[in-house]
Design goal:
Its main location: nucleus. GO terms for molecular function: protein dimerization activity; zinc ion binding. The protein has 692 residues and is mainly alpha-helical. Among the domains are: 241-348, no CATH class; 536-612, no CATH class. Helices cover 57% and strands 5% of the residues. Strands 3-2-1-4-5 form a 5-stranded mixed β-sheet, with helices on both faces. The protein is flat, with a radius of gyration of 31 Å. Residues 5-14, 16-22, 408-434, 436-454, 551-575 and 577-592 have low confidence and may be disordered.
Length: 692
């Protein structure tokens, strides 16, 4: 087995003579700064630890400052030791930052299989710093040993928070919808606080919005059994022949046919060149027009079965390059060499393109929501918990509008769609009609697009032009997506925090929910949202208010007529023991006296677009001494666990084929430091990552 090039313990080629000839006095601070900068270069650019053994780089450094270069040990072993020391020092800085946060620490976690076949768990922390800014820090990226059971995952989470010293500061945990995560978080919260009941642990389990959107997109594209489709696709891709792969995807209608065309083009360099040559010839033959931008330089995008948004991007790019694709297919079908032709069953006809346009338009809200909420949360938006419930309402409304637009009961079902479960389809229609309380409006109706002539047509013309089987295909896709989204929409009720995030947003408030849930059957949702918020606040936040209110009430009652401690001794003797007991009892707070009722009853000045709700609550913390703490905790919760996915992507860049022997603890230190550097939490060598 070839040895790891980083296992060589030789130092960089610095001669003793070079060290002794250095006469310039170099301070220890300069040396430490240079060592940290060298370490930051390795961490941030994913360089191997032996990078400074490169003779060209080393002589460049000597040319810049030979005296300083001579004072630094550049060997890989020394750099690894320096990495460990740096990690410990910077970890204390991050720990102090979290302890000084004005919100609880919320966790997000996910699992990953690394390129060197190790199971890795990523754990990140989310909180508001002293200035009310949303912060994210990678806390762990380490091996997950054993089976991925709920108990094992719970132990890993607890070990992480115990190691960081934030056991008593944990708020909620964000994770995907796997069943083992349910078990994990039940055990985890009961370890943190044995008094927590099962439903209370479920209230603090936040389902990843990105994972929900992924499931909805896959249900739209691949039907109810999208997981089985994914497994079958992976098996065929790995073990099947090209004909088997094409036949498998062809079953998915126009999307499958488009997949096969793109895969055929991208399957070899020769076919890619052939595709490019065909569209260039067509470009030369066609007249040049100023109003259209050339798209022949753009590459076709090939989707994968795991990420639905890759299919959206494939369709979107194909529609953009429709002229190129059609020109290529026409020339390809005339090729005298049959082996170079795309199978005729995969040729997209006009009706296929029309359906692809409709599929693209229906998927676009899902894609936009994913892109919006997976970003770093800034100014209280773009990735905060309050965006989940409105986002799901938005997509549900879109799906219901699409369904209403295409739902024509007079359509005859084509023979190819007779295999559909018509009773299930009818049941779904009834569910949608019961839930739907809004009519399509110009703001929520399907958008018009400008890239394809088909998109320019009005909706009635587009509807009439679609063949019956295409209408039925699209309708069933919408039904599948709606059913999946509604399934997880109902699960939002297991935690009061989703609705509370909307209620406590000063720009939205309870009035936003009342405007959305205006159907008589939905009035109970309003009641449950307020009751859930009150119960959660009372359980975890109002104790301090009760104590403070008791003191205020007692002070208010202390007058010569009521408080025996303030009454002259002669008058105290005239008061019976019963009178003293009665007047010394503080009056119990009613629900109308609570901070929540005060917040709900007061008219809140509407925030301007983009104004940060966190800053609003900080400005009004005197009015709401405990409710503002709940609001800040909620606004620190991210909508997704996307930061864990980012950590995995960056770790994959570190674990190149030449570095697969890297120890998992070294990988964790590199990735944590990289995250802290890029989030501006620490300096290395006095330099921030984004400093110019």
């Amino acid at each position: 087995m070839p040895s790891d090039p980083e296992d060589d313990e030789s130092e960089a080629p610095v001669s003793k003579r070079a060290r002794t000839q250095a006469t310039t006095v170099i301070s220890r601070a300069q040396v430490q700064q240079a060592e940290e900068l060298a370490l930051g270069f390795i961490i941030n650019s994913d360089q191997p630890f032996n990078i400074f053994s490169d003779s060209f780089l080393h002589h460049l450094l000597i040319l810049h400052n030979p005296a300083l270069c001579a004072q630094i040990a550049w060997g890989r072993t020394t750099l690894r030791e320096r990495l460990s020391r740096c990690f410990k020092i910077k970890k204390d800085i991050i720990r102090k930052e979290m302890m000084e946060s004005i919100s609880r620490i919320h966790l997000a976690f996910d699992l990953w299989t690394s390129p060197n076949r190790l199971a890795i768990i990523a754990v990140s922390g989310h909180f508001l710093d002293g200035k009310g800014r949303q912060q994210q820090r990678l806390l762990a990226l380490r091996r997950q040993l054993g089976a991925h059971t709920g108990s094992n995952l719970s132990s890993s989470l607890y070990q992480t928070v115990q190691e960081w010293g934030v056991v008593d500061r944990i708020g909620v945990v964000i994770a995907d919808n796997a069943s083992n995560n349910d078990t994990c978080l039940q055990e985890f919260f009961q370890i943190l606080d044995p008094s927590i009941q099962g439903y209370e642990a479920e209230e603090r389990r936040i389902r990843c919005y990105g994972h929900i959107l992924n499931l909805v997109g896959r249900a739209f594209l691949y039907g109810e059994d999208s997981e089985a489709f994914e497994q079958e696709s992976q098996a065929i891709e790995q073990f099947g022949h090209l004909d088997d792969i094409l036949r498998f995807w062809r079953r998915k209608g126009p999307v499958g046919k488009l997949h096969n065309i793109v895969k055929w083009v991208r399957s070899s360099p020769q076919r890619s060149e052939y595709f490019q040559r065909c569209i260039e010839e067509d470009l030369d033959e066609s007249s040049f027009t100023l109003h259209r931008e050339s798209t022949h330089e753009l590459e076709l995008v090939l989707n994968n079965e795991t990420r639905w948004n890759s299919t959206y991007l494939m369709i979107d790019r194909a529609i953009l390059k429709r002229d190129d694709v059609e020109a290529f297919v026409i020339k390809n079908q005339l090729d005298p060499d049959f082996t170079r032709r795309i199978p005729s069953d995969d040729v997209l006809v006009a009706e296929d393109w029309k359906l692809l346009v409709e599929l693209r338009d229906a998927l676009e809200p899902l894609y936009r929501q994913t892109m919006r909420c997976q970003g770093w949360s800034k100014q209280g938006s773009f990735g905060c918990l309050w965006e989940v419930l409105p986002g799901m309402e938005y997509i549900l409304e879109k799906l219901e509008d699409w369904k209403a637009f295409f739902d024509d009961n007079t359509d005859s079902i084509h023979e190819r769609s007779q295999r559909l479960d018509v009773s299930r389809l009818s049941s779904l229609r009834q569910q949608i009609s019961r839930r739907q309380c809004r009519q399509p409006t110009p703001s929520t109706s399907p958008q018009a697009h400008s890239q394809v002539s088909w998109s320019h047509q009005d909706h009635h013309t587009r509807f009439e032009a679609l063949p019956p089987d295409s209408r039925q295909y699209f309708r069933l896709s919408v039904m599948n997506a709606w059913k999946k989204l509604n399934e997880y929409y109902a699960k939002l009720g297991n935690s009061p925090l989703f609705a509370a995030a909307v209620i406590l947003h000063p720009r939205l408030g309870i009035s936003w929910l009342e405007g959305q849930w205006d159907d008589p059957e939905q009035l109970v949702w309003i009641h449950n949202a307020k009751a859930g918020l009150y119960r959660f606040w009372k359980r975890w936040y109002s104790q301090e208010e009760r104590e403070q209110s008791g003191d205020r009430k007692a002070n208010h009652l202390r007058d010569p007529q009521r408080d025996p401690q303030q009454v002259p001794r002669s008058q105290q003797q005239e008061m019976s023991a019963f009178d003293q007991w009665v007047y010394s009892r503080p009056a119990r707070l009613t629900s109308n006296d609570s901070e929540i009722d005060k917040y709900l009853s007061h008219e809140i000045p509407e925030l301007q677009r983009g104004e940060n709700p966190v800053l609003w609550w900080l400005a009004h913390k005197g009015t709401y001494p405990t409710l503002h703490k709940l609001a800040l905790d909620i606004f620190a919760i991210p909508a997704m666990a996307a930061d864990c996915e980012r950590a995995f992507s960056l770790a994959k860049l570190t674990l190149t084929s030449q570095r697969l022997a890297m120890d998992s603890s070294t990988l964790e230190q590199i990735q944590c430091l990289k995250n802290w550097i890029r989030r501006g939490a620490i300096l290395l060598g006095g330099v921030y990552h984004n400093m110019t």
